[in-house]
Write a structure and sequence with these properties.
The chain is an alpha/beta fold. The protein has nine helices and 14 strands. The structure holds glutamic acid (GLU). The site of glutamic acid has 7 residues, from loops.
């Protein structure tokens, strides 16, 4: 059975790009007689606003979607800690005490998602009891798994290149945010039985890391579908922090203004986008 999901973070209101993502995932499940899940990714420390989860549900219902809700990430922190402990016992995590400023000074390479951590603490004798993050030793991890591939419905078979992102953080220094997105989302997708991970192209590069984590933790491999992103007049992807969620593009604002949400969902399905919005097949981090 096909199981898809929509996994928003409650750190700002949903915008049209989220509606598009949710509609795509929902329709894929519906077409295959499968399940469409909603998972609230609410472990983003101080940025998380729990009250937004109710708004998200109201937005999805307004769009005419039906879903099954699975536990939010805050209910699963013990499983993230257990996975981190396993990886640590395998000798694949190392403590890192670098500050953001130190990393910014030391960085020598740009990865698909920004600066690549140069591995300063990998060989250093860092006290794990201190204020540390835990990073994945990606080259050692890849050496153990051997080459990995994964399949995107739109982009075909991919050679996994987690090395491009460098030694990513899996357990953050900020204990209010117990696991990084990579670790939490990978574990959740397996726990929720997700078979088709549908999300925007902006997370394409993250999938290389997720594939590696699945192989290390013995988790099943889903298929992926990274859809193109909606962009604004300036060609930039819609983003919560630039106000797409709060101005006219915000779903809650449109809902409150009495707009027909089902008609909006149909318009997105048919590629009839509001003025100034377009689909950009080219934007997003690839590989
Ligand atoms: N929580 C992520 C976000 O809101 C999406 C994660 C995912 O789809 O894997 O951007």
């Amino acid at each position: 059975m096909i199981v898809t999901r929509f996994a928003p973070s409650p750190n700002g209101p949903l915008h049209l790009g989220h509606a598009f993502s949710a509609v795509v995932a929902h329709d894929q499940a519906l077409a295959a007689g499968g399940r469409f899940l909603l998972r609230i990714e609410d472990i983003d420390g101080a940025r998380s606003r729990p009250e937004l989860a109710a708004e998200f549900r109201a937005d999805l219902a307004w769009l005419g979607l039906e879903w099954d809700e699975v536990p939010p990430q805050s209910a699963r922190v013990l499983s993230y800690a257990a996975a981190a402990a396993r990886l640590r016992a395998m000798g694949l995590l190392y403590p890192c005490r670098c500050t953001r400023a130190e990393i910014a000074r030391a960085v020598r390479a740009e990865g698909p998602d920004g600066p690549v951590y140069p591995g300063t603490c990998r060989a250093a004798d860092v006290d794990p009891a201190g204020d540390v993050a835990w990073r994945l030793d990606v080259s050692e991890a890849l050496r153990r798994t051997g080459p990995l591939t994964w399949v995107d419905q739109l982009h075909g078979e991919q050679q996994a290149r987690p090395d491009l992102a460098g030694d990513v953080v899996l357990v953050r220094k900020d204990r209010a945010t117990p696991a990084s997105y990579h670790l939490a989302a990978t574990i959740d997708d397996a726990a929720d039985g997700v078979t088709l991970v549908t999300r925007g192209m902006d997370l394409f590069a993250a999938t290389h890391v997720h594939r590696l984590l699945q192989a290390l933790l013995g988790l099943p491999m889903p298929t992926w579908h990274h859809h193109p992103l909606l962009v604004d007049e300036t060609g930039r992807k819609l983003a919560k922090r630039r106000g797409s969620g709060t101005r006219d593009l915000g779903l809650a604002a449109r809902r409150r203004a009495g707009e027909d949400g089902r008609a909006l969902a149909d318009a997105l399905r048919e590629g009839r986008l509001p003025a100034g919005i377009s689909v950009s097949p080219g934007i997003g981090a690839k590989p």
